[in-house]
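input
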Amino acid sequence: MSKQMCLFMAIFVVLSGLPALAEQQVIDALGRSVTLTAYPRRVVSLAPSITEILASLGVESSVVGADSFSLSSWYMDIGERLKSRGVVEVGGYWWSTISVEKILELNPDLILADRGAHRQLLEAFEAYNLTVVYLGSARSINDVYNDIYTVGLIFNKTGEAENLIRSIESTLQSGKELLKGYEGVKVLIVIDFWQGIWVAGKATFIDDLLARLGLVNAAVTIGWSVVGIEAITEWNPDIVIVACPYASQEAVEQSGLPQLGKPLVLLNTTEVDVLMRPGPLLAYAPQVIYHALVQGLANRTTTTPRTPQQAPLVTSAPLELYVAAPLVALVSGVIGYYVGLRKKR
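output
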C-alpha cells in the first residue's frame, strides 16, 4: 500500500471519529458467527431493551429505524430523541408486525434483533443479504450482561459496557439489602392473561432477579409459561405481582387471582417497563419490587386471616424514582417481550 493511501486512510479514520475496525466475528444468541467489517453507522433496533442499551452506551445516533415501543420509550427520553431525528418506525415488537420492506428502504448496515421475538425473520434477512445480530431472550441476569457486552463489542464501547454492567450489578446488590426484611417471600410474577395466566418461571431473568434479591419465585414451571389458577393455588405464593401493561380489571378478576386470598399488586406501565425489559432498566427493578411488596404486604404481620373476598387488589401508583431529573442524573453517571406473548421488551 502506498504512503499516500496509508495517509488518506489515517485521515479518514480520525475524521470519522471511530478507529479502524479489523474484521471481527461476533457470536450471536442463535449461535451464528456474524462477520463485521466496519463499525455500524445505520442500525435498525427491533426491541426497546436493545435501543436502551444503545443509548446507554452512547451510540443511539447510529439508529435509523426502530420498533414502535422504542419510539415511545421514556427512558433517557429516547423515544422523543429518536423521533426528533426522523428515525423510522419499522413495526411493532413481535416478528409478525415488523416490516422487512421498511427495513430494506433504510439500507441498514446492521439489524439488532431479539432471539425470541424475531427468529422467524432470519430467513428473510438472509435472503436480502442483511447483516443481523440476535441478542438473547434472557434466561438470566448474566445473559443480559452478555447482551450489553456484545453491543459494546460491536460499537467499540466495551469500556462503557463494562461500566454499565458493574453499575447494574452494584444496584442489584444494594437491592438485596433494601429487600432484606422480605427475604424468603414467595413472589409470583404474572406477565399476561392471553388464553390463560402467563407467569415468569424458572430459567428467566425474572427468576434470577428474584433470587438475587433474596426472594423466592413461586412459579415452578420453566420459562414464560401459561398455567391455570389450580397450579397457582398449589404454589401458594405470598404475593402476586401483575406486570402486564394491558391487564384490565376484568381480565384480572376473570383469572381467579383475587380469589386466592393473597395480596395482588398491579404495576403501572412504567414499572412494567422496568421489570420486563432486560437491559439498563434492570437497575431500577429492585425499587419496583420493593414498592410492590411494601404496598401488598403492609399488613402481613397481622394475625387477621384473609378470606378470598378480602384479598387486596392494589394498583401501583407512580414512583418518584421515575422523575426525569433524577433518572437522567443516574444514567449519566453509569450507564420483547418474550417468546410467544404480546408484551414489549
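quick obs: Residues 1-17, 301-313, 317-343 have pLDDT under 50 and may be disordered.
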